[in-house]
Amino acid sequence: xxxxxxxxxxxxxxxxxxxxxxxxxxxxxxxxxxxxxxxxxxxxxxxxxxxxxxxxxxxxxxxxxxxxxxxxxxxxxxxxxxxxxxxxxxxxxxxxxxxxxxxxxxxxxxxxxxxxxxxxxxxxxxxxxxxxxxxxxxxxxxxxxxxxxxxxxxxxxxxxxxxxxxxxxxxxxxxxxxxxxxxxxxxxxxxxxxxxxxxxxxxxxxxxxxxxxx
Length: 214
Fold this sequence. Notes:
By secondary structure, the protein is an alpha/beta fold.
């Protein structure tokens, strides 16, 4: 498995949330911090120290390295709880509350499913579910991991690879709800696309990834 072909597990969540955000980060190597990203970093800093503990009959591994040879994915699980029979249970940490719009929550679910896929491949054990732990509410949201979720992981990885191989930045999203709080908003300029689309300008082709003008 050639290192240049490896994808970080986190890239799948970026793509599901916004392909342009994903392109800015992973194609153009652009990233800016804001309050939201700093809060997320603070939450992960609490669990990103490798180690393990025994808790209520579970072996709890923190900052566990992950990989999938089949999809050439690499990453790190915030926490994995191993049941007495060896079944892995990934727990991904997020800042904020678990009460999110369904489409936004689905992006977190995809990253968790990618972790589950890696753990299945690494251990040979099925991973039927995992959980998202939200720091603000101190509550978990259980996420079933089924065949459809794992297929979505494979499809998303293929879409990201196609974008990276093409070397073209995707256009801004039309769903500007996802732009709220994005640290890359000033680089992305999503309102520019909305203005071009509203006045029918032919210059909207500047945002067409097939145009090659971006």
